[in-house]
Amino acid sequence: MTSVLRAVVVGGGMVGAACADVLARHGARVTVVESGAVGGGATAAGMGHLVVMDDSPAQLALTARSLELWEDLAPSLPASAEYRPSGTIWVASDDEELEAVAPKQAAYREAGREADLLDAPALARLEPALRDGLAGGLRVPGDRVVYAPVAAAFLLERSGAALIRGKAVALDDSGVRLAGGQHLSADLIVVAGGIGSLELLPELPLRQRKGHLLITERRAPSVHHQLVELGYLKSAHASDDDSVAFNVQPRPTGQLLIGSSRQFDQPDSGLDWALLRRMLARARDFLPELGDLAALRIWTGQRCATPDHLPIVGPHPQRTTVFVATGHEGLGITTALGTAELLAAQVFGTPSALSAFDFGVERFRPEVAHA
Fold first, then answer.
1. Which of 52, 271, 293, 319 has the smallest C-beta neighbourhood within 10 Å, fewest atoms?
2. What is the pLDDT of residues 80-108, one digit of tens each?
3. Reduced to 3 states, what is the DSSP secondary structure of residue 352?
4. Torsion over CA of 284, 285, 286 and 292, rounded to 10 degrees?
5. Dist CA 183 CA 175 (whole Å)
6. What is its EC number (predicted)?
7. From the CA atom positions of the chain, what is the Rg in Å?
């Protein structure tokens, strides 16, 4: 054992870069292994929405704390990271969805995040491009947007980590072996490769989740917040079937970035035109003027999901030198900094309120044991 902790992080996306940064700030000598471009995988395929979510107490704690860490980091980010306030409006289509707003507001406020109830007239004043007849919503003004590939590159550069362009093909107790045969010695290995983590740790309970995104031409209808339907979890995440939901982000260029779709276990990057039409029809149902716009670019990305939609952050139960930081699904950009803080707490014993929640792989113990 050397006096300086030697750490290898597998994965140069947003989560891997955040982990490299926090390890380096605690004195570790860090190497990052990435086979593609830094931030070029799932990081580049996301909307960059920094959003507080309350699907579970653990998710609320992780996203809320991560937003605080993003706010601390913001003054250091380069302008090209395009970190900016957007706020989120969770849009209620009907009275049933509107009834869910008050408890959601209470949860956000308990987590220290501002959240404002909107009745139908207030929603129409804030976002006049939305169709008539919506019931109201919840405005979360503290949510943000960032261009994540630049933020990942910034954190990696700040860490001073050595970047090795290569593919990690095996782990052992003393390090990481690359496809070319090179062995990187390490006291600590952090597997943060998104869905690619399965190539090294096939026993992890991870699933591939494909999503579509579209960006419009300029002259899009004026939208002032990230808009997400309040039935997002109900309509897009309630089952394993292909699904879509209304999620639109305004861009400073006058364009709109439109999501979202969800397909499990489809590893290809091709467009599913039928699903894309469903996604756009859903968006037009909320923003009727979208029907007159052309698309400039359409692309897909692969998320990495766990059965309970929470990431896995913690030591591997059978490999003494291996920690896991993966399975963030669509929240990897938001929660990268919270993930890194939790990793530091586990490795160095530093304080973090996130330690009170179980993000460890052993919560899926039966799947791990029998994989």
1. 271
2. 999 999 999 999 999 999 998 999 999 99
3. coil
4. 30
5. 7
6. 1.-.-.-
7. 20
